[in-house]
Amino acid sequence: MTRRQRLLRWLKRLVVAALAVGVAGLGVALGTFWYFSRDLPDVDALHHWRGPQVTKVTCRGGPVCAEFFTERRTWVDVTTLPKHVRDAFLAAEDADFYAHHGLDWVGIARSAVKNLKPGGLKSGASTISQQTCRRLLLSTERTLARKVREWILTPRMEAALSKDEILSLYVNSIYFGHNRYGIEEASLFYFGKRAKDLSVGEAAVIAGTVQSPVRINPLTNVVRAKKRQRYVLEQLWKKGFVDRAAAEAFIEAPIVLGPRPPAPVGQGYAEEVRKLLVAQFGEKTVMEGGLAVDISMDPKLQAAAEAAVRKGLEAVDRRQGYRGPVGAVDLAHFTRLRPLLETRLAEAGKRRPDDVLVADLAVLKSLTPPAESEDPFAEPEDPVLLDEPIPSEDEQLARAVGVKVLSEAVETVGVVTRLDQATQTALVDLIGREAQLSFDALAWARRRSDAGALGPPPKGIADVVAPGDLVRVRLGRALPASTRLEATLAQVPRVQGALLALEPTRREVVAMVGGYDFATSAFNRATQARRQPGSSFKPFLYAAALESGRYTPITRVNDAPVQVRDPFTGKAWEPKNFEKAGFDGPITLRRALTLSKNTISARLVEDVTVDGLIAMARRAGIRAELPQSLTLCLGTGEVTMLEIANAYATLHSQGQFAEPVVLRRVAKRREGGGEQVLLERSAAFEPAIAPAVAFLTTSLMRSVVEEGTAVAVLELKRPAAGKTGTAQEYRDAWFTGFTQQYVASAWVGFDDHAPIGSLETGGRAALPLWLEFMKAAHQGLPALDFPVPEGVTAVKIDPVSGKLAGASVPGRQEYFLAGTEPTEEAPRPGTVDPNDFLLLDSQRSPR
Description:
Elements: H1 3-37, E1 55-58, E2 64-68, H2 83-93, H3 105-116, H4 128-137, H5 144-160, H6 163-173, H7 183-191, H8 200-209, H9 213-216, H10 222-238, H11 244-251, H12 267-281, H13 283-288, E3 291-295, H14 299-319, E4 327-328, H15 331-347, E5 357-360, H16 393-400, E6 402-405, E7 411-420, E8 425-429, E9 434-438, E10 469-478, E11 485-490, E12 496-503, E13 508-513, H17 538-547, E14 556-559, E15 564-565, E16 572-573, E17 585-588, H18 589-594, H19 598-608, H20 610-620, H21 641-652, E18 656-657, E19 663-669, E20 675-680, E21 686-687, H22 691-707, E22 721-726, E23 732-738, E24 743-749, H23 762-777, E25 792-797, E26 812-817, H24 837-844
Parallel strand pairs: 1-3, 9-11
Antiparallel strand pairs: 1-2, 3-19, 4-10, 5-6, 7-8, 7-10, 8-9, 10-11, 12-13, 12-24, 14-17, 15-16, 18-21, 19-20, 22-23, 23-24, 25-26
């Protein structure tokens, strides 16, 4: 065989082998295509994709006060955006977007080579079309199988949708950090404007954020954001999207963020709304259905309620002493950290150029930086950031430190660096500023041990803080002729509280606070906690007594030691008055409620019966299971604040009961426009208690605030009624009361039912929360009296004898159920009815 023949034979073999390999490869490719094409999602569904919609909740006056969502997004069509906004995304992510058919094979090959290099940084090569396909049709897993499906689906999507449709899907689906999805929400959050109003520089910032939204966004790190913005601006002019001058105008200009959104109010109220909606319409409808919800919350009253609860609980907490610093750091380690912390503040974005930033160093107590959470769909790190070295543990810790804008009364955590014994002050380093604690404001800071024992009053600054302590401080104004800030020591109260307010004429819940801080405890103590109301339950007992017709406000009942056998428990029961109250002998019903006499309540419940008391409470609005026990007259049944407040509203409304209104209206948008109303609600009043009985009970409660356990309410300078309540061993402190405009209830206690502290009564612990709120709520409102209904007779009586005050006897006005008023006139001064001799003698003789 000649050489030529051998060459031809080998050539034929090579051709056959090549064909075989080609056929096999084609078969593998077709098989792979067939295998991975099974059960792929339908790309045609993307024509109508708008993503999960945000349910918007509006409160009184029309402002949006809450949003419920799985992804916070507002859809915007890309064709309505200026060209430079669209082009910014192309420059940042895919300059050839309008030229390719979904896949950039050259880029894929280049990325594969980079990824195969030993020690090379992983690189992505996804086009905008691929990213959109992956986000909307595939999973987050980073596997070859998912990548193959992506290569199959992307051309299908390109064939089914126009380029503008794909770009619209992209800019509306991507994550921009701080829980914002889509360009519209990102623009509103970072720059306070609509996406259509972004400048070239702002659009470059937004587009640049996509690559690493947690690390590059301008609020978290303005230095990284600026570096990325420069890259995008350079790409804009290099790729011909804008001229060089347009890009260079922003390259050196600082990034100026939009104004800071106002702090949200009513987070606990909003969570209660969400629960009510989910219970009625389901989780998916509420979180993704884009409902329009109107609620009863008044944002101004809600803010006042939250401020009142915080102030009141902090006052109670201070009486319980100082629990010590939040942590401690080694000052030598802190000195090494400080330059990194200064860099952290320098890199943080500012909403206003004149903002002064301070650090919140609470994270230093653990010295372990929290893990960053990134967008699971994000590509590997962008080349712009690849020159950054792997951060050290200290650098990671510094990056995790919180940043706050300096303002009066802002709270933050700083490090005590030095004590000055001569001036009795301590210096607290906040990185951006230095604060000064003065011992003059720390007399309350008695150390409390873990066992709860309260130590002696501190004698000097060293008894309260030490160098290296991480302390929470509330900042004040700058000290005279100094950049230092005056500060007071602060701590998050362990004691909890709640406040709820109703507008009784519409029975709408205008304010609801379920605890000191919703961010640290989402438990709503206004609706979820069941606690003993103590003496604040007594008005329903007195209402039952008045309704029986056997009692009037001037009926005398003996305030003396009493022991009864409870027929329900079989045990002897001997109720006591408040520890310092003592016994006053026969006193009127009005005086008994004014002084909250437990012995009188025990005698009344024996007469009206426990069943009669429960029936009255039920009619007023108490729905909780109440104990069949004589002790119920002292408020031993557990109720929610919403129940007790609404039951008081029934008394306020002259016996008219209605369920409290939180949700006013719920509607769902129709696809073709308009909306479908799913719920509309207003108060449905029904008679529950005779108007005259409700009014007389209110009249008795007026005496509580005018001369009894709640005289502090007189500061409102308007007619008011209410009742304090203190559960056994000071475990619950209540005050519930009302004016003609509002009904409100306040509670203070520990979640574990531990005693609040000696003498922490309803009047001392809870009433200040109520009063602080009601002062704010009534600003600018007229002082209105409670109207007298039919069936009530007002007469002037002699307070000593209880008889009519004739022309010769000075008296005071008293109210009675019509037909129960006295008819006999009191004797002239100096004369005594023999029948009343012993009674009057005991009342007039000194004790």
